[in-house]
TrEMBL record:
<protein>
    <submittedName>
        <fullName>50S ribosomal protein L14</fullName>
    </submittedName>
</protein>
<dbReference type="InterPro" id="IPR008991">
    <property type="entry name" value="Translation_prot_SH3-like_sf"/>
</dbReference>
<dbReference type="GO" id="GO:1990904">
    <property type="term" value="C:ribonucleoprotein complex"/>
</dbReference>
<keyword id="KW-0687">Ribonucleoprotein</keyword>
<dbReference type="InterPro" id="IPR041985">
    <property type="entry name" value="Ribosomal_eL14_KOW"/>
</dbReference>
<keyword id="KW-0689">Ribosomal protein</keyword>
<dbReference type="GO" id="GO:0005840">
    <property type="term" value="C:ribosome"/>
</dbReference>
Length: 94
């Protein structure tokens, strides 16, 4: 199983938020810390067990660029990345 890294998309598989798309902020000790920029901000990360998350091994180009340059992510960056990902998925389904 490939290791999750910062900026990757992941979808929740279990819990009241199942199906919700998040961005991985970090992974530690079998847990994944997620943010969506709205309810789960960078100040209030969602902690989930690794097995309760379906990783999407792609990253948003804007998030990847920021992390590569060593810049801090912001909630608005995460919201934009998730919105663009969901729009792409909807367009493929049509």
């Amino acid at each position: 199983m490939e290791e999750l890294r910062q900026g990757m998309f992941a979808r929740s598989l279990a819990g009241h938020d199942s199906g919700r798309l998040y961005v991985v902020i970090r992974e530690k000790d079998g847990y994944v810390y997620l943010a969506d920029g709205k309810l789960r901000t960078l100040d209030k990360l969602k902690k989930k067990k690794r097995k309760h998350v379906q990783p999407d091994y792609g990253t948003a180009p804007e998030l990847e660029e920021k992390t590569a340059r060593g810049l801090a992510l912001r909630d608005e960056d995460i919201r934009k990345a998730i919105k663009s990902k969901e729009v792409k998925v909807c367009q493929r389904q049509m």
